[in-house]
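User: If only I could read backbone structure tokens as easily as an amino acid sequence. Underneath my words sits a plain record pairing an amino acid chain with its backbone structure tokens. This is the protein in question:
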Amino acid sequence: MDQPTAPDAPSPYIDTTRPHPARMYDWFLGGKDNYPVDEEMGRKVLAIEPSVPVLARMNREFMRRATRWLAGRGVRQFLDIGTGIPTPPNLHQVAQEIAPASRVVYCDNDPIVLAHAEALLRSTPEGSVDYVQADVRDSTSIIERASRTLDFSEPVALSLIALLHFVGDGDGTDGAAGAHEIVSGLVSLLPSGSFLVLSHVTADFQPEKAEQVGSLYRSGTASLHPRPRAEFVRFFTGLEFVEPGIVSEGEWRPELGERVPGEEGVVKAGYSAVARKP
């Protein structure tokens, strides 16, 4: 088994005075790595949309099904950006169950995730797992540091799960890249045969509730940018969609994983898709 490598970052500082999206997500999933301030905000979100915990589990299951599908078709390298607080089974556990020699790199800029990095680094003896602390906006640095574990001359599955709706659109005023430019930059650094796995919140189905939830996040945690279907499609410019194309998380190849309890009847709140780089 690979020994955990020390993440290249200082000891994390975790602010427990303000709610945090990753800890709220953990609370929605029934985890224990959250604080009263996160639960308080989480309950305010549930007052607007009670099905959020089910939607969070569905999103997590989409990641697992997509990973199973990719590993079953020979993909052996995975780069997961915006990893979040570990919730077993994690991506590397799913991939290595099918292909023990799979190599996985997790990436997040959140000190909360860094505090749990050891749990993310428990690989099979045949495979390899590493963790990079970096911001999704720093594409070149992520690829450079991930190349310690991954061979970027061979296909890589890039996962951006429930991340990009926390990234705004670049307007050029401060030089910061927007969400679409970030994805385009990352995909441009991947070889032919690689895949993009992406899920994203939308306001298409429940515009009023989406605005209310977005207002809550902006007041206490982070900016939230639900995007319409046309903007979701833009993330896949130049790529080839894998069937069934763009669907809600629960509709992407459900035969590859168990259905989430309570999923039936839940109103759609996001899009998901997997696509291949020609």
About this structure: Confidence is low (pLDDT under 50) at residues 1-7.
